């Protein structure tokens, strides 16, 4: 039996109720104890909970998202998870090794690092990134901690966090990760970390909310109500994308999750056609 089955990505080609019915069957057959969702936003998990309650299916219990002190575009979703008893087990908690202290300005990456082995999997190492890393490293030294322990401890202290997914190659890396469990950071330390890894801005959050309301309206076959919410969500997502600031990774994630901005525009266009036919 599988203790926790995690749905990796939202499937744009399969209705959500079909996926959840498959989870219900797996649980009833004794193949799976619990199930969770990876790379799902709060509005998608909300829809899962709603469908589960409506059909008396098993509810999801975990959320696996990318989250680190450098990448926090899904930070606003943590409160939802805490409220609804969904444990969060983030991946990329050390952001592909960037938060271990091994990357230094003006120095080549270590031979056994992610940047050396798979450079396409790691962020561009420019001055802006090193400015952030150096601020975090300075805070770690002032706190008497390694950069790894500081960042993992700070992540564990966020709402709804139940555990972290951390990849290690050496025993000392494992020790640092374990030590983070006993670290408690004060409000001042967390505030300084927040400045180095700010959460996403309002455009992305508004975009997700509007897109979710549009989905809810569409599920009730209310096309007239759905269209303006979809359009407003598109407008806010495009505004964040144009800025290419801290919201840029969030918009990329949002687009990959839902289809490209162009795909969603085509969907809105199709909705308009359907609405016109229905009205006639």
Brief overview:
By secondary structure, the protein is α/β, with parallel strands linked by helices.
Topology:
Blueprint lengths: L1 E6 L8 H13 L3 E7 L3 H14 L6 E3 L12 H7 L3 E2 L25 H4 L9 H16 L4 H10 L14 H9 L7 H10 L5 H18 L3 H21 L4 H11 L2 H19 L1
Parallel strand pairs: 1-2, 2-3, 3-4
Helix pairs in contact: 5-6, 5-8, 9-10, 10-12
Task: Give an overview of the whole structure.
Helix content is 54%, strand content 6%. It is an alpha/beta fold and 280 residues long. The protein has a four-stranded parallel β-sheet with strand order 1-2-3-4, with helices on one face. β2, α2 and β3 form a beta-alpha-beta unit. α5 packs antiparallel against α8.
Primary descriptors:
280 residues; 4 strands; alpha/beta
Give the percentage of residues in beta strands: 5-15%
- Percent of residues in helices: 40-55%
Structural class: alpha/beta
How many DSSP-defined strands? 4
- What is the global morphology? globular
Largest sheet: 4 strands, parallel
Distance between the termini: 53 Å
Rounded mean pLDDT is 81
Low-pLDDT ranges: 245-249
Q: Whole-number radius of gyration?
A: 21 Å
